[in-house]
């Protein structure tokens, strides 16, 4: 058998690879004789992916709603994948940080720009019918979105603004969790009673959320930014990229979502104005009420005080 120098080099590398894990190279190579060539549909798992859309009604536009939200969840997973690379990189360098941040922001820009699919892609009459079958589920219950928040900033920046001044980085985790801004969408703070929406959400995900907060305490996007050399933290382009990410997630994305909800739930005149999960959705969603801000130190006092005002959005 005649082998080119390149083939011999590759075979040597393969042998070293399997020796390192105490595997026999000839057995591994023989296995290639019986393996099937990969196809696009097997690699992407197309059939499995396309089997995940199950309607609860016979209304065609419900399929638009389901698929759009599944796409969102896939993009959220891509965002978390990039954030993990930032978090797990020791002695992170500015070029690597900036490139991953750019990827994350592009994904959120795409999500924001895609809302016309929801806003203009469903008949109001159909939506107002099939949404009743979703109760008490709600987009509030997107766990990946919460994981993104926990991985982006310190938990104090996700605290309900009514209590933020009394908390700091030393506040115990359980107290912090019970006063996150989105708790207001599912809790009566006078009685302390949680809605079914919030109870079910926490039953499934609270332990995972607590782990995420703990794991990212010192390696969320903000913390990794502060670990860059001081000259890089003062880089105008990088600061603007951080601000763009913050503004996109906490104002642009939220307002697109809110305005779409307003169109169907309020302006259509066909419902009772209530969210499927029973939350006070306008106050929960509108950024001016909670002023959730990932990187408050990168904004001026005037920008912070006017955060989320629709005249500036």
From TrEMBL:
One of its GO terms (biological process) is L-tryptophan catabolic process to acetyl-CoA. Keywords: Dioxygenase, Oxidoreductase. InterPro entries: Trp/Indoleamine_2_3_dOase-like, Trp_2_3_dOase. GO terms for molecular function: heme binding; L-tryptophan 2,3-dioxygenase activity; metal ion binding. PANTHER family: TRYPTOPHAN 2,3-DIOXYGENASE (PTHR10138:SF0). This is Tryptophan 2,3-dioxygenase. It comes from Flavobacterium hercynium. The lineage of its organism: Bacteria, Pseudomonadati, Bacteroidota, Flavobacteriia, Flavobacteriales.
């Amino acid at each position: 058998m005649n082998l080119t120098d390149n083939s011999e080099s590759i075979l040597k590398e393969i042998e070293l690879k399997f020796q390192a894990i105490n595997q026999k190279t000839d057995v591994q190579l023989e296995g290639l004789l019986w393996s099937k060539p990969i196809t696009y549909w097997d690699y992407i798992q197309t059939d499995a992916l396309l089997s995940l859309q199950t309607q609860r009604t016979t209304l065609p536009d419900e399929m638009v709603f389901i698929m759009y939200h599944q796409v969102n969840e896939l993009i959220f997973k891509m965002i978390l994948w990039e954030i993990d690379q930032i978090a797990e990189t020791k002695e992170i360098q500015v070029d690597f940080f900036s490139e991953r941040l750019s990827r994350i922001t592009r994904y959120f820009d795409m999500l924001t720009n895609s809302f016309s699919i929801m806003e203009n892609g469903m008949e109001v009459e159909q939506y107002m019918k099939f949404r009743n079958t979703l109760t008490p589920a709600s987009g509030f219950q997107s766990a990946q979105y919460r994981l993104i928040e926990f991985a982006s900033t310190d938990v104090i920046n996700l605290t309900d603004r009514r209590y933020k001044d009394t908390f700091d980085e030393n506040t115990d985790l359980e107290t912090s969790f019970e006063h996150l801004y989105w708790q207001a969408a599912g809790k009566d703070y006078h009685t302390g009673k949680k809605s079914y929406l919030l109870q079910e959400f926490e039953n499934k995900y609270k332990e995972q959320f607590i782990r995420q907060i703990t794991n990212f305490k010192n390696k969320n996007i903000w913390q990794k930014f502060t670990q860059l050399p001081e000259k890089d933290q003062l880089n105008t382009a990088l600061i603007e990229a951080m601000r763009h990410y913050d503004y996109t997630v906490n104002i642009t994305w939220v307002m697109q979502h809110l305005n779409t909800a307003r169109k169907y739930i309020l302006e259509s005149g066909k419902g009772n104005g209530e969210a499927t999960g029973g939350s006070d959705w306008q106050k929960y969603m509108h950024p001016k009420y909670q002023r959730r801000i990932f990187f408050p130190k990168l904004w001026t006092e005037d920008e912070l005080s006017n955060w989320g005002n629709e005249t500036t959005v």
